[in-house]
Amino acid sequence: MIKLVKAKLSDISAMQALVLSEVKEGVILNRSEDEVATNIRSYVLAKEDEKLVGYTALHIHSKRLAEIRSLIVDEKYRGQKIGQKMVEFALEEARELGVEEDVLVLTYLPAFFEKLGFKEINKEVIPEHKIWADCIKCIHFPVCNEIALVYKLS
Ligand SMILES: CC(C)(COP(=O)(O)OP(=O)(O)OC[C@H]1O[C@@H](n2cnc3c(N)ncnc32)[C@H](O)[C@@H]1OP(=O)(O)O)[C@@H](O)C(=O)NCCC(=O)NCCS
Protein backbone atom coordinates (compact mmCIF):
# COMPACT_ATOMS: atom_id res chain seq x y z
CA MET A 1 0.00 0.00 0.00
CA ILE A 2 1.40 3.39 -1.07
CA LYS A 3 1.10 6.33 1.30
CA LEU A 4 2.02 9.99 0.84
CA VAL A 5 3.99 11.58 3.68
CA LYS A 6 5.93 14.79 4.25
CA ALA A 7 9.72 14.40 4.04
CA LYS A 8 12.13 14.31 6.95
CA LEU A 9 15.85 15.03 6.90
CA SER A 10 16.46 11.30 7.38
CA ASP A 11 14.85 10.69 3.94
CA ILE A 12 17.43 12.73 2.04
CA SER A 13 19.90 9.91 1.25
CA ALA A 14 17.17 7.74 -0.27
CA MET A 15 15.80 10.77 -2.18
CA GLN A 16 19.22 11.51 -3.68
CA ALA A 17 19.69 7.84 -4.65
CA LEU A 18 16.26 7.63 -6.30
CA VAL A 19 16.77 10.70 -8.48
CA LEU A 20 20.37 9.99 -9.51
CA SER A 21 19.70 8.42 -12.93
CA GLU A 22 17.28 11.21 -13.94
CA VAL A 23 19.83 13.82 -12.81
CA LYS A 24 22.47 12.12 -14.99
CA GLU A 25 20.05 12.20 -17.96
CA GLY A 26 19.41 15.90 -17.31
CA VAL A 27 15.67 15.30 -16.77
CA ILE A 28 15.75 16.52 -13.17
CA LEU A 29 18.04 19.26 -11.89
CA ASN A 30 20.72 18.25 -9.40
CA ARG A 31 20.06 19.56 -5.89
CA SER A 32 22.73 19.26 -3.23
CA GLU A 33 21.97 17.56 0.07
CA ASP A 34 22.10 20.93 1.77
CA GLU A 35 19.67 22.45 -0.72
CA VAL A 36 17.24 19.57 -0.18
CA ALA A 37 17.65 19.96 3.59
CA THR A 38 16.98 23.70 3.43
CA ASN A 39 13.80 23.05 1.47
CA ILE A 40 12.79 19.83 3.24
CA ARG A 41 9.33 21.20 4.09
CA SER A 42 8.57 21.47 0.35
CA TYR A 43 8.74 17.76 -0.30
CA VAL A 44 6.05 15.09 -0.33
CA LEU A 45 7.15 11.47 -0.55
CA ALA A 46 5.43 8.29 -1.74
CA LYS A 47 6.35 5.31 0.38
CA GLU A 48 5.49 1.63 0.29
CA ASP A 49 5.90 0.68 3.93
CA GLU A 50 9.22 2.41 4.70
CA LYS A 51 10.59 2.21 1.13
CA LEU A 52 10.79 5.49 -0.80
CA VAL A 53 9.18 5.04 -4.25
CA GLY A 54 8.70 8.65 -5.37
CA TYR A 55 8.70 12.30 -4.45
CA THR A 56 8.08 15.83 -5.58
CA ALA A 57 8.45 19.35 -4.18
CA LEU A 58 6.16 22.35 -4.08
CA HIS A 59 8.46 25.35 -4.10
CA ILE A 60 6.97 28.73 -3.23
CA HIS A 61 8.29 31.63 -5.31
CA SER A 62 5.94 34.38 -4.22
CA LYS A 63 2.43 35.00 -2.90
CA ARG A 64 1.06 34.38 -6.37
CA LEU A 65 3.33 31.66 -7.76
CA ALA A 66 4.48 28.19 -6.70
CA GLU A 67 6.36 25.58 -8.73
CA ILE A 68 6.32 21.79 -8.87
CA ARG A 69 9.90 20.52 -8.92
CA SER A 70 11.79 17.24 -9.00
CA LEU A 71 8.88 14.91 -9.72
CA ILE A 72 10.10 11.32 -9.71
CA VAL A 73 8.60 7.85 -9.38
CA ASP A 74 10.79 4.75 -9.10
CA GLU A 75 10.77 3.06 -12.52
CA LYS A 76 9.40 -0.18 -11.03
CA TYR A 77 6.41 1.71 -9.58
CA ARG A 78 5.39 3.80 -12.60
CA GLY A 79 1.89 3.58 -14.08
CA GLN A 80 0.14 3.25 -10.70
CA LYS A 81 -0.99 6.91 -10.44
CA ILE A 82 1.66 7.65 -7.82
CA GLY A 83 2.95 10.62 -9.82
CA GLN A 84 -0.58 11.93 -10.28
CA LYS A 85 -1.39 11.61 -6.57
CA MET A 86 1.78 13.47 -5.57
CA VAL A 87 1.03 16.34 -7.97
CA GLU A 88 -2.57 16.51 -6.68
CA PHE A 89 -1.19 16.58 -3.11
CA ALA A 90 1.11 19.47 -4.05
CA LEU A 91 -1.75 21.39 -5.71
CA GLU A 92 -3.87 20.93 -2.58
CA GLU A 93 -0.98 22.17 -0.46
CA ALA A 94 -0.69 25.25 -2.72
CA ARG A 95 -4.40 25.95 -2.17
CA GLU A 96 -4.13 25.45 1.59
CA LEU A 97 -1.15 27.79 1.78
CA GLY A 98 -3.13 30.40 -0.12
CA VAL A 99 -0.98 30.65 -3.24
CA GLU A 100 -2.98 33.24 -5.12
CA GLU A 101 -2.65 32.38 -8.80
CA ASP A 102 -0.52 29.70 -10.46
CA VAL A 103 1.42 26.51 -9.95
CA LEU A 104 4.15 26.32 -12.59
CA VAL A 105 6.05 23.33 -13.91
CA LEU A 106 8.97 23.16 -16.36
CA THR A 107 9.03 19.71 -17.92
CA TYR A 108 9.79 17.42 -20.84
CA LEU A 109 6.49 15.62 -20.18
CA PRO A 110 3.75 18.16 -20.95
CA ALA A 111 1.18 15.40 -21.66
CA PHE A 112 1.44 14.08 -18.09
CA PHE A 113 0.70 17.52 -16.65
CA GLU A 114 -2.00 18.41 -19.21
CA LYS A 115 -3.97 15.37 -17.99
CA LEU A 116 -3.94 16.98 -14.54
CA GLY A 117 -5.31 20.32 -15.78
CA PHE A 118 -2.07 22.22 -16.49
CA LYS A 119 -1.98 24.44 -19.59
CA GLU A 120 1.07 25.21 -21.68
CA ILE A 121 2.35 28.79 -21.61
CA ASN A 122 5.11 30.64 -23.40
CA LYS A 123 8.23 30.47 -21.23
CA GLU A 124 8.96 34.15 -21.87
CA VAL A 125 5.87 35.17 -19.89
CA ILE A 126 6.95 33.48 -16.65
CA PRO A 127 7.00 36.45 -14.32
CA GLU A 128 9.38 35.52 -11.54
CA HIS A 129 12.95 35.99 -12.75
CA LYS A 130 14.41 33.94 -9.91
CA ILE A 131 13.20 30.79 -11.68
CA TRP A 132 15.90 31.34 -14.27
CA ALA A 133 18.59 31.45 -11.62
CA ASP A 134 18.27 27.65 -11.52
CA CYS A 135 18.72 27.28 -15.27
CA ILE A 136 22.43 28.02 -15.29
CA LYS A 137 22.86 24.93 -13.08
CA CYS A 138 21.28 22.70 -15.73
CA ILE A 139 23.32 20.54 -18.09
CA HIS A 140 21.07 21.64 -20.98
CA PHE A 141 21.68 25.37 -20.41
CA PRO A 142 21.34 27.48 -22.56
CA VAL A 143 19.56 25.30 -25.14
CA CYS A 144 16.51 24.16 -23.25
CA ASN A 145 13.54 22.31 -24.69
CA GLU A 146 11.56 22.20 -21.49
CA ILE A 147 7.93 23.18 -21.76
CA ALA A 148 6.33 25.54 -19.23
CA LEU A 149 2.82 24.80 -18.02
CA VAL A 150 0.69 26.38 -15.33
CA TYR A 151 -2.18 25.18 -13.20
CA LYS A 152 -4.57 28.02 -12.38
CA LEU A 153 -5.60 28.06 -8.73
CA SER A 154 -8.04 30.93 -9.12
C1 LIG B 1 6.55 11.37 -14.88
C2 LIG B 1 6.40 10.32 -13.80
C3 LIG B 1 6.60 10.98 -12.45
C4 LIG B 1 4.99 9.74 -13.90
O1 LIG B 1 4.75 8.94 -12.76
P1 LIG B 1 3.70 7.73 -12.78
O2 LIG B 1 3.36 7.42 -11.35
O3 LIG B 1 4.19 6.63 -13.62
O4 LIG B 1 2.44 8.41 -13.51
P2 LIG B 1 0.90 8.12 -13.22
O5 LIG B 1 0.69 6.65 -13.11
O6 LIG B 1 0.45 8.95 -12.07
O7 LIG B 1 0.24 8.67 -14.56
C5 LIG B 1 -0.90 9.51 -14.55
C6 LIG B 1 -1.37 9.70 -16.00
O8 LIG B 1 -0.29 10.28 -16.77
C7 LIG B 1 0.06 9.42 -17.86
N1 LIG B 1 1.52 9.39 -17.99
C8 LIG B 1 2.42 8.81 -17.16
N2 LIG B 1 3.68 8.99 -17.63
C9 LIG B 1 3.54 9.67 -18.79
C10 LIG B 1 4.47 10.12 -19.75
N3 LIG B 1 5.78 9.88 -19.64
N4 LIG B 1 3.99 10.80 -20.83
C11 LIG B 1 2.67 11.04 -20.97
N5 LIG B 1 1.73 10.63 -20.09
C12 LIG B 1 2.17 9.94 -19.02
C13 LIG B 1 -0.45 8.04 -17.44
O9 LIG B 1 -0.71 7.26 -18.58
C14 LIG B 1 -1.70 8.39 -16.68
O10 LIG B 1 -2.75 8.67 -17.61
P3 LIG B 1 -4.25 8.06 -17.44
O11 LIG B 1 -4.83 8.80 -16.27
O12 LIG B 1 -4.89 8.39 -18.73
O13 LIG B 1 -4.07 6.60 -17.17
C15 LIG B 1 7.43 9.17 -13.98
O14 LIG B 1 7.29 8.63 -15.28
C16 LIG B 1 8.87 9.58 -13.78
O15 LIG B 1 9.38 9.57 -12.66
N6 LIG B 1 9.57 9.95 -14.89
C17 LIG B 1 10.98 10.33 -14.82
C18 LIG B 1 11.18 11.69 -14.20
C19 LIG B 1 10.42 12.78 -14.94
O16 LIG B 1 10.39 12.85 -16.15
N7 LIG B 1 9.82 13.66 -14.15
C20 LIG B 1 9.08 14.81 -14.63
C21 LIG B 1 9.92 15.98 -14.39
S1 LIG B 1 8.90 17.44 -14.36
Number of helices: 4
CATH fold description: Aminopeptidase
Distance between the termini: 33 Å
Largest sheet: 7 strands, mixed
Q: What ranges have pLDDT less than 50 throughout 5 or more consecutive residues?
A: none
Query: What is the general shape?
Result: globular
CATH architecture: 3-Layer(aba) Sandwich
The percent of residues in helical segments reads: 25-40%
Give the CATH class.
Alpha Beta
Write the layout of secondary structure elements.
Elements: E1 2-6, H1 12-25, H2 33-38, E2 43-48, E3 51-60, E4 65-73, H3 82-97, E5 102-107, H4 110-114, E6 119-121, E7 147-152
Parallel strand pairs: 4-5
Antiparallel strand pairs: 1-2, 2-3, 3-4, 5-7, 6-7
Bound molecules: coenzyme A (COA).
Folded structure, characterized:
- By secondary structure, the protein is α+β, with helices and mostly antiparallel strands.
- The chain has one domain (2-152): Gcn5-related N-acetyltransferase (GNAT) (Aminopeptidase), CATH 3.40.630.
- It has 4 helices and 7 strands; from the N terminus they run βααβββαβαββ.
- The mean pLDDT is 94.
- Residues 22, 27-28, 71-73, 78-84, 105, 107, 109, 111-112, 115 line the site of coenzyme A.
